[in-house]
Amino acid sequence: MPMTYNDFKQLGMRLDMSRGKPAPEQLELSRALLDEAGTTGFLSRDGIDCRNYGHLLGLPEARELGAAFLEVPVAQVVAGGNSSLELMHDALAFAMLFGVPGGEPWRKQDDIAVLCPVPGYDRHFAICEALGIRMINVPMNDDGPDMDFVESQVASDASIKAIWCVPLYSNPSGAIYSAEVVRRLAAMPAAAPDFRLLWDDAYRFHHLTDQKHSTLNVLDACAAAGHEDRALIFASLSKVTFGGGAMAFLAASKRNVDWWQQRVSVRTIGPDKLNQLRHVRFLRDRAGLERLMECHRALVEPKFAAIAAAFAEHLGGLEGVTWNAPAGGYFISLYTPPGFAKRTVALAAEAGLVLTPAGAAYPYGRDPDDRHLRIAPTFPTLDEVRLAALGIALSLRRALEEI
Amino acid sequence: MPMTYNDFKQLGMRLDMSRGKPAPEQLELSRALLDEAGTTGFLSRDGIDCRNYGHLLGLPEARELGAAFLEVPVAQVVAGGNSSLELMHDALAFAMLFGVPGGEPWRKQDDIAVLCPVPGYDRHFAICEALGIRMINVPMNDDGPDMDFVESQVASDASIKAIWCVPLYSNPSGAIYSAEVVRRLAAMPAAAPDFRLLWDDAYRFHHLTDQKHSTLNVLDACAAAGHEDRALIFASLSKVTFGGGAMAFLAASKRNVDWWQQRVSVRTIGPDKLNQLRHVRFLRDRAGLERLMECHRALVEPKFAAIAAAFAEHLGGLEGVTWNAPAGGYFISLYTPPGFAKRTVALAAEAGLVLTPAGAAYPYGRDPDDRHLRIAPTFPTLDEVRLAALGIALSLRRALEEI
Question: Which end of chain A offers a freer environment for a tag, N or C, measured as fewer CB atoms within 10 Å?
Answer without folding.
Answer: N
